[in-house]
Write a structure and sequence with these properties.
The complex is a heterodimer of chains A (about 850) and B (about 425). Chain A is of the alpha/beta class and about 850 residues long. Chain A is built from 30 helices and 27 strands. The longest helix of chain A has 26 residues, at about 310-335. The radius of gyration of chain A is 30 Å and the shape is elongated. The longest helix of chain B has 27 residues, at about 295-320. Chain B has helices at about 5-10, 40-50, 55-60, 85-95, 95-110, 130-135, 135-145, 155-165, 225-235, 240-250, 260, 295-320, 340-350, 365-375, 380-390, and strands at about 20-25, 30-40, 70-80, 125-130, 145-150, 170-175, 180, 195-200, 200-210, 210-220, 255, 275-280, 325-330, 360, 400, 415-425. In chain B, the strands form 3 sheets. Chain B has a 7-stranded mixed sheet. Chain B has a 7-stranded mixed sheet with strand order 7-6-14-13-8-9-10, sandwiched between helices. Chain B is about 40% helix and about 25% strand. The chains are: A alpha/beta (about 850), B alpha+beta (about 425). At the A-B interface, strand 12, helix 8, helix 10, strand 14 and helix 11 of A face helix 6, strand 10, helix 9, strand 12 and helix 12 of B.
């Protein structure tokens, strides 16, 4: 059978093959069975790389995604059917995984060693089921940084791994290139405390200046991958700050010194232009507050060192060094005609004031023509570069759209500052979360449960013992776990993928952020109840529910404090974070039972509805169908207002009531234009669409009474229909996995749907039943189902599943339904094909903001192909 | 003119070598610089200056009919924090009176001049520049009824540098590895150049001609930083003491060198030798060492190298940016201190890969004061120069260094220096 054949091809290509390049016989060739070393055997190689610096050890490691769970099998069959039907669907190797970032203090190198040991990173990688001792012996780990030499013996002795030293600068550049090309919004500017994330076109990245501020400063002109030159530098760097700072203050750590600077006033130590002139010196454009001479004021006074505040000294030093670096960097960028300057290195460490000072200097000296940029993963450049130096990691050609960054509990606080005990499994994570204390919006992190000196998740400060709060350094950005999903693609129907921004609501507006954080906060107890109930309310589920609530509250608190903590933040990201957090605590589908119940209730009345529709003339029917979609869209558990409605009536009552209330014109009403495209005007009968992609929203009435009848109408007109569902559950949204069952049920009531579903391979069992009679009937256009590649109530068209991308190639109509996909995101998205965006606005604030209307207003936005 | 004051002025001749005719001030953040003109007494010229190539005779042939004053330009500096010493000095030397007497003599000597007003109750005006010209204006007014006529600092700097570079033979020199080498600069090929004035802070000025210049860059890490940080880190009581210390120190104790990072090896891949400083003060982070455990000499040395190196680098990059082939370093920070000059030269040499050379001025430190002095055109110095240029080769100019009074040996210049010159009473 064709299905099987294709399946097996698919499987074989998905399995990693042995890479035989650079194979050599290891040991004595005279031996009868010498061991053959396959250095490029990606499966055996531990994907761990280290950057061991003077103060911090940075670790980057790659873990494979756990295999598809077995209950996906059914989905797989359907997918394969679709694959045949679509014809052009590519088979893809599933080599996805996750890139993790962890830090340790170098002087606590034992913690690092034990972390590696406990995660078995030294032998064959993450959760390897086949780590045998021979692998242990031969493990070679890429490492960079001065410590790669210093600690080589220690690693050999303790873990039996050899460190393969990579050149520091090679690594830096490789790391920066990778991040800037593969990670969306990796770069940001920082002016006067404001972060702004910047998307850089990977094709227009080079050349740039990379300024690495370690003890000293290196300035590297980067022209491409592996093409770079150290063009300048300065000996006045982080070491100067810390060295002079130590001599001048009693600080015992670099961070303490930095901390001091935040409370400093450099006017007591620096000679300002105003000190000299008593006023501005406008002739040369210097304001009175410009520093004329760093520490110059100390020359005018007969004060002892002890009479100066260490805070002031620290600030003065910081400004002196940051300004100087900014100036020299700008001059070098200018000299080599480089338009972008990226700053990295341990001196910056996400410290807001340092970044501000450098940005100020670049701005000042360039008279506003240049901007300093920083990298979210700045501390990990070297480690990432070392990681990239493995010859077979398969990450070379990865693109922005194949990475999704997630912030599981634990990761944000290890990538950031807070860290806890080793979290080897969910149970430990929950135990850890249970130690969290919440006071108002503040979440207090727990004291580590394990005695010090065992294992730790790393981090470079130990604020835990002081009982500090989660916020730690307010300016610190969290570095999440990068999920590598090679199958993700850019949706091919976007008019301009580079300019595309999914989020309609920009959360950089503080009041907007506060509003949505409050909404999510308020919704939380209800969600926890649903989640716990979905798992039968067991003690275990209650415990997980509690941990989820704490974890998600911690995220919200963190975001309230530092909106940029997780990178560029849009409403879609926020909503997705909630779903991810649920999944993190193994709530697979919090709305499972609700969805089932509503689907059943809606399917029960579908037949009546279809009869009613069929009695209408074509024009009235089209309007009624659109009204139906809008009316059915009211069933949305994501909306507080609708949750309240539920207590007041049954599904069909609400549906009918709400459809009857539909009064045209709607708030946004392009129905007439859509109708003309569908039915034409006068004698002109337009050609039906070839293929329509229907992005469905909620389960229950929404899909059954709203979208399915619309799909049926399109099928009837000879348009192929692809129902696009979520890959993973989000709220009560219908998933791609659930759709075939719903369609199969619906098909029982309707011949059109049945034949289309058969043709689309959705009715596996029914297929044989109808084989005998199939010749009598006209072959129908197919009704298909694809997954969208995400698990969020919104959709980001830069990252969709490859099957959706494949299905899109023949599509000439897109219908986006629901708030998440057509309002929160994509309201302004432009497509190369006709697009219809349908939603009922179930949030007063959003209604006012987006459509200048009120809650329950409707949006019917039709845009012909751009 | 008040005869009594003139008398006292005469008495002070014991401590000065001539009659004071003119005075200009440059009051910076750290130092106050004085330039004043004294008229040579005949016998002094006779006894001390027999071989001196100056003279009035050289000028008497010129087309000008104005009388000529033979004398010298004197240079003196004070720490700004001891501005009272400066005031004392002016008072004791009656310099402020000299200022008026110059004007008056000039006027008297000019045919058809009017009778000067009686200066008895009149406020005397003298040229001044530098930030302190604003800051201490009241003090001068109170103490001596001197009103400071403020000249723009940068105008003065540039005017001073242009004047010195155009007229003084052997004004510019390079300094590398203890080798001082004078550079003859063709006056016609002087511009454009970069003037780096290292005072408390550092100003970098692109000079394209007389009065044609622009401050294009600068840095706050300058002389004030050296002295300020030095003062906090060592027990030094004066800038010069700190400089002295630095001469004896070894920066390896506090600086992190390339060799420290790469295990004594050069990082040849990027062309850094093992003795290159990777991070100034980068070794001063040892946990068990306190400030007192480091030798002040070493700290001073490291500071000096850090600051000189940085200034050299930014200067070179700035010169490169504007396509300027010459960089002149001036300002009090240098003080003809060999080590300072050497580091600056090394830095420029290093960053330019040998393509550019740092040059210094004999009268660094007095550029502003000379410029302020020049700004009053009464003495006609510039015109004199213009004439001289036509008539004589540069070596025979009337202006020459008074070798006997210029200490050459070390940086210990206490500001006593003079240039022999002739000035028209315009």
């Amino acid at each position: 059978m064709a299905t099987k054949g294709s399946n097996s091809i698919h499987r074989s290509s998905s399995r990693p093959l042995l890479d035989l390049s650079k194979a050599e016989i290891q040991g004595n060739v005279e031996e009868k069975y010498p061991t053959i070393l396959l250095p490029n055997q990606s499966d055996d190689l531990s994907h761990l790389a280290l950057d061991i610096g003077g103060s911090l050890i940075k670790l980057v490691y790659f873990s494979r995604h756990e295999g598809q769970s077995t209950n996906d099998k059914r989905m797989k069959i359907l997918k394969d059917k679709l694959g045949i039907l679509n014809g052009n669907r590519r088979s893809y190797p599933i080599l996805g995984g996750r890139l993790h970032f962890v830090k340790f203090e170098t002087n606590k190198i034992n913690e690092c060693l034990e972390f590696i040991y406990s995660k078995k990173l030294h032998c064959g990688g993450w959760e390897s089921h086949h780590s045998d001792s021979t692998n242990d012996q031969n493990a070679v780990i890429k490492a960079t940084g001065g410590g790669a030499y210093k600690f080589a013996d220690l690693f050999k002795e303790r873990l039996g791994i050899s460190l393969d030293k990579e050149d520091e600068m090679d690594c830096l550049v490789a790391g920066a290139n990778f991040l800037l090309k593969a990670i969306r919004h990796e770069a940001y500017t920082h002016m006067e405390g404001q972060k702004e994330f910047i998307q850089i076109d990977p094709n227009d990245l080079f050349p740039y200046l990379l300024v690495n501020i370690g003890s000293g400063v290196s300035m590297i002109k980067v022209d491409g991958d592996g093409k770079f030159e150290r063009v300048s530098g300065t000996n006045v760097g982080g070491g100067t700050y810390w060295g002079l700072g130590r001599l001048l203050t009693n600080c015992s750590s670099f961070d303490e010194l930095l901390e001091l600077s935040q409370k400093g006033d450099n006017r007591t130590t620096d000679m300002l232009v105003g000190d000299i002139y008593g006023t501005d010196y406008p002739k040369i454009g210097l304001s009175a507050s410009t520093i004329a001479s760093s520490f110059g004021k100390a020359t005018l006074e007969n004060k002892e060192l002890e009479e100066y505040r260490p805070e002031d000294i620290s600030l003065s030093l910081l400004r002196m060094i940051s300004y100087n670096i900014g100036q020299i960097s700008y001059l070098n960028a200018l000299r080599f005609g480089l338009k972008r300057i990226f700053f990295g290195g341990f001196f910056i460490r996400g410290h807001a004031y340092t970044m501000d000072a450098i940005s100020f200097a670049v701005h000042f000296w360039s008279k506003g023509t240049a901007q300093a940029m920083f990298l979210r993963h700045e501390g990990f450049l070297g480690a990432l570069g070392a990681f990239m130096s493995y010859e077979k990691h398969g990450l070379d050609d990865l693109m922005v759209h194949q990475f999704v960054e997630r912030f599981p509990m634990g990761a944000p606080y290890t990538g950031g500052k807070i860290h806890g005990p080793p979290l080897r499994n969910l149970n430990e994570k929950i135990s850890w979360m249970e130690k969290f204390l919440q006071k108002g919006t503040e979440i207090t992190a727990p004291v580590p449960m394990t005695p010090p000196g065992t294992t730790g998740l790393g981090g470079f400060e130990v604020p835990l013992s002081k009982g500090s709060t989660l916020r730690s350094d307010a300016s610190a950005l969290n570095v999440g776990v990068l999920h590598l999903i090679p199958t993700l693609e850019v949706f091919p129907l976007l008019v301009d993928p580079k300019m595309y921004e999914p989020n309609t609501v920009d959360l950089s507006d503080h009041s907007e952020l506060e509003y949505w954080l409050t909404i999510l906060s308020e919704h939380l107890p209800d969600l926890v109840d649903k989640a716990v109930a979905s798992e039968g309310g067991t003690d275990d589920s209650k415990r997980r529910g509690d941990a989820f609530a704490r974890a998600f509250s911690a995220h919200l608190a963190r975001l309230m404090e530092e909106p940029a903590a997780y990178g560029k933040l849009g409403l879609a990201n926020l909503l997705e974070m909630r779903e991810e957090c649920l999944r993190e605590f193994q709530f697979v589908d919090a709305y499972r039972s609700i969805k089932q119940r509503e689907n059943e209730a809606s399917l029960a009345v579908l037949h009546d509805l279809l009869m009613e529709l069929d009695s209408l003339d074509e024009e009235t029917r089209l309007l009624t169908l659109i009204e139906g979609v809008l009316a059915a869209n009211i069933f949305d558990w994501g909306s507080r207002a609708c949750v309240d409605l539920y207590h007041k009536g049954t599904i069909i009552e609400i549906y009918r009531m709400s459809r009857n209330k539909m009064q045209r014109p709607w708030r946004v009403d392009d129905f007439d234009a859509f109708k003309e495209r569908m039915l034409g005007s006068g004698d002109k009968k337009p050609l039906p669409h070839r293929r329509a992609l229907l992005f469905v929203d909620n389960s229950g009435a929404d899909i059954v009474l709203g979208m399915l009848p619309l799909a049926r109408e399109l099928l009837r007109r000879g348009t192929e229909v692809v129902l696009v569902g979520n890959s993973l559950p989000a709220l009560n949204d219908v998933t791609a996995m659930e759709l075939p069952d719903i369609v199969a049920e619906a098909a029982k009531h309707c011949d059109i749907l049945r034949r289309a579903a058969e043709s689309g391979g959705l009715l596996v069992d029914a297929m044989t039943n109808t084989l005998d009679g199939s010749k009598e009937k006209l072959p129908s256009v197919p009704l298909m189902v694809v997954e969208n590649g995400c698990g969020s109530p919104c959709i980001d068209f830069r990252q969709v599943s490859s099957e959706l991308a494949a299905a899109a190639k023949d599509a000439d109509l897109i219908i986006l339904e629901g708030m998440g996909r057509s309002l929160h995101t994509n309201l302004y998205a432009q497509f190369k094909c006709d697009a219809l965006k349908l939603a009922m606005v179930k949030n007063q604030r959003l209604a006012e903001k987006l459509v200048q209307g009120n809650i329950y207003d409707c949006v019917c936005k039709y845009e012909p192909a751009y | 003119m008040d005869p009594r004051r003139a008398e006292t002025g005469k008495n002070s001749d014991q401590i000065q070598s001539g009659h004071v005719y003119h005075l200009a001030l440059d009051i910076g953040g750290s130092l106050a610089k004085l330039v004043y003109f004294t008229k040579n007494d005949e016998h002094i010229v006779g006894s001390e200056k027999k071989k001196s190539p100056m003279k009035a005779s050289g000028i008497s042939n010129s087309s000008r009919n104005s009388p000529v004053l033979n004398g010298r330009l004197n240079f003196k500096k004070f720490e700004t924090s001891k501005i009272n010493d400066c005031l004392e000095f002016i008072n004791s030397m009656k310099l402020h009176l000299g200022a008026i007497s110059f004007q008056m003599i000039a006027m008297v000597m000019n045919a058809g001049c009017q009778q000067p007003e009686s200066p008895g109750s009149q406020t005397i005006t003298i040229k001044a520049t530098g930030g302190g010209a604003y800051k201490y204006a009241d003090l001068f007014k109170e103490k001596f009824r001197i009103s400071l006529d403020k000249e723009d600092e940068m105008d003065c700097l540039v005017a001073g540098a242009n004047f010195l570079l155009e007229t003084i033979h052997q004004e510019a020199f390079t300094y590398m590895g203890n080798q001082k080498q004078f550079v003859w600069i063709d006056k016609n090929d002087l511009y454009p150049y970069l003037l780096v004035n290292i005072g408390s802070g550092v100003g970098m000025i692109k000079v394209e001609g007389d009065g044609k210049f622009e401050r294009v860059s600068g840095t706050s890490i300058g002389g004030g930083t050296f002295w300020g940080l030095g003062k906090l880190l060592t027990k030094c009581k004066s800038f010069d003491e700190l400089l002295d210390l630095s001469y004896r120190g070894n920066n390896r104790a506090v600086d992190m060198l390339v060799g420290d990072i790469y295990g004594g090896m050069d990082y040849s891949k990027i062309g850094l030798s093992s003795t290159t400083i990777a991070s100034s003060f980068g070794r001063a982070i040892s946990e068990n060492k306190e400030r007192d455990d480091y030798k002040p000499e070493d700290i001073a040395r490291s500071l000096l190298r850090m600051i000189s190196n940085n200034i050299g680098q930014i200067s070179y990059l700035t010169a490169l940016r504007f396509g300027l082939k010459r960089i002149f370093f001036g300002g009090f920070f240098i003080r003809r201190h060999p080590f300072t000059m050497d580091t600056l030269s090394v830095a420029v040499n290093f960053w330019s890969k040998g393509e550019a050379k740092a040059m210094f001025l004999q009268h660094e430190g007095f550029l502003g004061a000379v410029g302020a002095f020049m700004s009053s055109d009464k003495h006609g110095l510039k015109e004199l120069l213009a004439n001289q240029k036509v008539e004589r080769p540069p070596s025979k100019l009337s202006f020459s260094l008074d070798q006997t009074q210029v200490p050459q040996q070390d940086g210990e210049l206490n500001g006593d220096e003079s240039i022999e010159c002739s000035v028209y009473g315009a």
